[in-house]
Amino acid sequence: MMKLKKPTKKQILEYALIAVVFLSMVVMIFGFYKTEYSYSMYETETRHYVRGTVTEITDQELTLSGADGEYFTGTQNIKVKILEGELKGETVQINNYITAQHNVVVNEGRRVIVCADTPKNAEPYFTLYNYDRANSIWILAAVFVLLVIIVGEKKGLMSCIGLGFTMCTVICILLPSLYNGGNAALVSIVTVVLSTAVTCFCISGLSRKTVFNVISACVGTLSAGLIYKIFALILSLSGVSMDEAESLVLISQSTGLKLGGVLFAGVMISALGAVMDVAVSIGASLFEIRELNPEITSKQLFKSGMNIGKDMIGTMTNTLILAFAGGSIATLIVLASYGVQYNQLVSSNYIALEVAKGLAGSAAVVLTVPISALVCSFGYAKHKKQNSSQIKEENQ
Q1: Is residue 382 pLDDT above 70, yes or no?
Q2: Which region, left, alpha or beta, applies to residue 122 given φ > 0 means left and ψ of -120 to 50 means alpha?
Q3: pTM, whole model, 2 decimals?
Q4: The total number of structural domains that make up the chain
Q5: Which of 102, 132, 162 marks a domain boundary?
Q6: How many Å apart are CA 372 and CA 215, to the nearest integer?
Q7: Are 392 and 291 in contact (CB under 8 A)?
Q8: Domain of 112?
Q9: 143 is a domain residue
Q10: Residue 58, phi-psi category: left (phi > 0), alpha (psi -120 to 50), beta (remainder)
Q11: Do 125 and 212 sit in the same domain of this protein?
Q12: Are residues 77 and 60 in contact, defined by beta-carbon separation less than 8 angstroms?
């Protein structure tokens, strides 16, 4: 009978820290649901979005529209059985008006979301909100996680844990803090540091490699925020330059929300993933070089890190800029239809904001290369007297 290997003290500590990470996520999610917001733009106490199933289509008039008949417009008179809430089990009649903006064409048996407005002194009013996509989204997320675990095995599982923690910190800590007028710079930095530390720990465990990766990624991400501040000053950008400024101003008047802080936090979070990718990749490469050649000097390690980073700069900067371009195609097409001129376009708030955010993130990626190379070359070479097997054992 095979005897199970007793875990080391380091492994026990890592398991304990993973348990703490899970517990932290539970606490953050619980706190998020208990959070009370001091301002609400609309009164929604009588309005509920509930799941339902289309049981019958009593009448419909649909017409193909669009350049090549891409979508339907018209009306559908449908009956929907409510599946949850106070009206569970009831069947309601809904007039489904189908337009280019509200293009929700249904058939019998389709799961949908119904907006049920039930004021106390009036008849309830029902409208079709959208398709019920909740189960599909969870299934797709589960398939993604399964794919990561199958390909990455233990590393893939730990990566998913790190991703989950990052999402929890952004949604459950960063957003409520910004909404309620918290210090944007402080809460953004705390979010970045916590997310980076947990993600790097999940990837590399308790090791010097993790420490160096965290330092490199945090400094690189903070540089993105600093560079954006400089760009914003040069381009005369502020929170009121955002498309959502009008709504955010109303919120800020009641909660103390800082519009400039929303932009700063957005830049930090959008740059975090790419910066962390560069920092971890360079750190892992330099660790392997140090593993193969324990006598290598810090200068040689730094040079190797720079050479590795130069090959990454092109692809990672392209990633951020192309993400901006891809997300802006629809907006740019609309602007072109308005006959926008060059001087009008290049000086618009939209272009200035997107360019500032895109270039700040890309510049941070570029700066992360020498930062990570410097931190790792100094850290690994400093311990060159330690033999290779000890280093390898520590970082496993």
Answers
A1: no
A2: beta
A3: 0.80
A4: 2
A5: 132
A6: 8
A7: yes
A8: 47-132
A9: no
A10: alpha
A11: no
A12: yes
**What does the pLDDT read at residue 135?**
92
| Residue 325 covered by a domain | yes
Q: Give the C-alpha separation, 72 to 61, whole Å.
A: 10
Q: What is the CATH number of the domain that holds 79?
A: 2.40.50
Q: List 189's β-bridge partners, or say none.
A: none
User: Tens of pLDDT along 9-38?
Assistant: 887 888 888 899 989 999 988 888 877 766
Query: Which amino acid belongs to residue 124?
Result: P
**DSSP secondary-structure letter at 8?**
P
Strands 71-82 and 47-65: antiparallel
CA atoms of 249 and 36, how far apart (whole Å): 20
Q: Is residue 387's pLDDT more than 50?
A: no
Please give the radius of gyration of the chain, using alpha carbons only, rounded to the nearest integer: 26
Same domain, 266 and 319: yes
Structure tokens at 23: 């517990």
Cα–Cα distance measured from residue 214 to residue 195, given in angstroms and rounded to the nearest whole number: 10
- Residue 166 sits in the same domain as residue 126: no
- Non-local CB neighbours of 184 within 8 Å, separated by 6+ positions: 178, 258, 260, 261, 262, 264, 265
- CA torsion sign, 161 to 395 to 152 to 217? positive
Shared domain check, 128 and 167: no
pLDDT tens digits along 234-250: 888 776 666 677 777 77
387 domain-assigned? yes
Domain end position, chosen among 69, 99, 132: 132
Look at residue 38 and tell me if it is in a domain. Answer: no
Rounded Cα gap, residues 138 and 169, in angstroms: 20
User: Residues 6 or more apart from 193 whose CB is under 8 A from it?
Assistant: 214, 218
